[in-house]
Amino acid sequence: MAEITPFKGILYNPSKITNLADVAAPPFDIISKQEQHRFHETHPQNIIRLTLGRETENDTEKNNRYTRAADCFNQWLSEGVLQQDKTPAFYMTSHEFPFENKPLIRYGLIARVGLVPFEDGVVLPHEKTFSNVKAQRLELIKACQANFSSIFSMYSDKGDKILNTLKDTAPGNTPVIDINEKNGHRHKMWRITDSALHRYIADAMKESKIYIADGHHRYETALNYRKWLSETRPDFSADHPANAVLMYLCSMEDPGLIILPAHRMLDEVPSSARASLISRAAEYFDITKFPYKGNRRDKSRAEFISALKSSAGINCIGVFMKDCPEFYLLKLKPGVMARMFGDELSKSLIDIDVTVLDRLIFMEILGFDQARLDDEKLISYSSIAEEAVDIIAAGKHDIAFILNPTRIDQVRRIAEEGLIMPNKATYFYPKVITGQVINKL
Length: 441
Description:
The chain is of the alpha+beta class and 441 residues long. Helices cover 34% and strands 24% of the residues. The chain folds into two domains: 4-258 and 430-440, no CATH class; 262-404, Conserved hypothetical protein from pyrococcus furiosus pfu- 392566-001, domain 2, CATH 3.30.1760. The strands form five sheets. Strands 1, 4, 5, 6, 8, 9, 10, 11 and 12 form a nine-stranded mixed beta sheet that branches. The mean pLDDT is 93.
């Protein structure tokens, strides 16, 4: 049973912060080093100081980015930069954004959701996590005792009953947050304090399954934090706030729910492995080459990406390597995955492009072990194919694997079957920004 409850959120004080766009930021896991620096420089109270503070060479056990985040959080509360609401609320959001030359809008509900282990079948994951990232997030939550960033989750709302009720209630009122970003995205948020509406939403979602879209690390960290508290705090009880976590809930039927691909850019791939990759892949894939040199570079890149997109649904993966003037399109031959992995992988998993990439290309052809795949320092991601290609062409990484996006029906089926896809199997777009509301633990 899903337990959805209102809470007394902590928001930026508009009398102290006049432009909320200056203090908001994306989720920590998609922020590059350059963006981390930029957000730190944008405003002294940018949420980045809480979610992804800078490390220094003088960091110690008692003075590090986690303790500094806690100091900032407590200082901002004491100075009134952040204020906690006096009345429990749900927080409805809208996110307006352009996509493929069309205006779209996605609605969400920010609430506290009761923590339950995945095996209970109420909150369902769909992809693996990195151990080191969870360890870092646990240190942050121990130091700050708060959820700074909402976990992006989904629920099925056929007929849009819940969404329509929210839309009828909130948008007629003035939003408490209205953020206009330079990229054309606009975020609004409304408080919902009506207790009758709280009960309606809680009851309507009681039997819902909650599917994690983005924030697997944060959810598993919340479970680990609760476990740590229960083992170290004699007074820990079922009423403790750490028994729930901050979530952004979006209808799976919302037309503004988009999944982009998560293209992989790998480091420390030996030149010998790169040189033999395509010849070894020929046993399993039909391979098409696109030259990438001279005056045709931009045209070839466009043709390569177009050919990949037109092959969606038939296990097609693009490859581009540094110091190699060609693109390669790898189309899986019929029956390969079933023949090689049919005894260990379910049908739902075996047909996913990221499974083909992880099991066949990474592990079988390139010889990566699980430790290599679990090392987040050796792999970077981009949702923009052109960007990934340009980064490899500049020699910043060794090799890029360009993918088509995982579909929402695949995510749902795999989650319901209790299965797990490889790391970063999906890139839900747009991300839920951090800095709208905080949940204190």
